[in-house]
Structure formats: C-alpha cells, structure tokens
Amino acid sequence: VVFKSCNLRDEKNMVKEKYHLQEWLGGEQFNYCIVIEPTPHLPFKYNEITQRLRKISFEINKKYLGNNFTKFKNFRDRIFFVAFKEIQLNKHYNIMVSLPNKFKRMGYFIQKNFKSEFIMQWCMLQSMNPYTWKLRKMDFENNNLHIEPVKNIKGRVIYDSKKMKVFDSVDNDQTYFII
C-alpha cells in the first residue's frame, strides 16, 4: 500500500512539473522545430544528441554573435535548444530552437538560412555507429532532420512534451533537456 501511494505522489509531482514546464516554455519565443527522425536500426543516443547540440549552438553563436557571446548574462541573448525524447514506435527527438533578438535584428539572412546552417553544422560533426564503431554516413540531403518554423508555440510545446517524464528507466537518461 505504501509503494502505491509513493507512486501516486511521484506521478502527481511529475504532472505538476510537466504543467509548469509547459507554462514556462509556452511563454518563450521559439522560432524553429527540429525533428531528428528515427532510425530504427541505429538510433542516436542521448549523449550524442546533447553533445551535437552543444557544439552546433557554440558554432552558430560564435559565427553570428562573436566571441563574447559566452559572457552574455541572459540565456535568451544566445541560441538555445529545448529537446524532448519521444518513444513511440521508434525513438526520436523533438527540439525547439529559440534564436536571440540579435539574430532577429540581423533580419533576413539568419532567419532564412538557419535551416541550412544547422544542417551544415550537423553534417560536419562525425558520428560513430555505437555497435560497429564505423563512421555514420551524413550528407546534406539525407540527414534525418526535419526543420520547420514554429507557427503555434503553445501547441508545439504541448505536442513535444506530451510523453515527458523526468527520467527514462529504459535508457537511463533524461526525457527532456535544455541546452
């Protein structure tokens, strides 16, 4: 009986956390949504996704904001990602991208070229097959990425976080993360 009440309490806390996260993210300005398509025979691991997003964020921020971007106090002054792991038939990641206001002031170039910039950075990073230790083939046309502008922020947040848990007991990693 005690075991069930602990589970119910944890489930209630998880629902509260999910609601608060959805409220907070619904108030943020997200410009793009990236879906890393499932590859059933070779899914990306949590560590690889987080490291790739960190490197891409660093490179894009450095290119467009200069070397001083690391000293910015407000995280909204640089690009950031909020990613949710989703497991239905195949594991994949839904990632929301927030571009800083400075990017918006740069106008047309970064807004229209973010997609190609992200794909280029993604393809430049080498990836190892965790089973055979051979390099994965990454090319510009066939990259398992789907990038589109966000039209409805609250709807996107609710959709991406619908399966949110604090911790995934299957893969022993987080089901959402912010970079």
Secondary-structure blueprint of this entry?
Blueprint: H1 2-26, E1 32-36, H2 46-65, E2 80-87, E3 91-98, H3 101-106, H4 108-124, E4 145-149, H5 153-160, E5 176-178
Antiparallel strand pairs: 1-3, 1-4, 2-3, 2-5
Helix pairs in contact: 1-5, 2-4
Task: Describe, in short, the structure shown.
The chain has 5 helices and 5 strands, in the order αβαββααβαβ. With 179 residues, the chain is of the alpha+beta class.
What does this structure look like?
The protein has 179 residues and is α+β, with helices and mostly antiparallel strands. It has helices at residues 2-26, 46-65, 101-106, 108-124, 153-160; strands at residues 32-36, 80-87, 91-98, 145-149, 176-178. Strands 4-1-3-2-5 form a 5-stranded antiparallel beta sheet, with helices on both faces. Helix 1 packs antiparallel against helix 5 (153-160) and helix 2 (46-65) crosses helix 4. Residues 1-9 have low confidence and may be disordered.
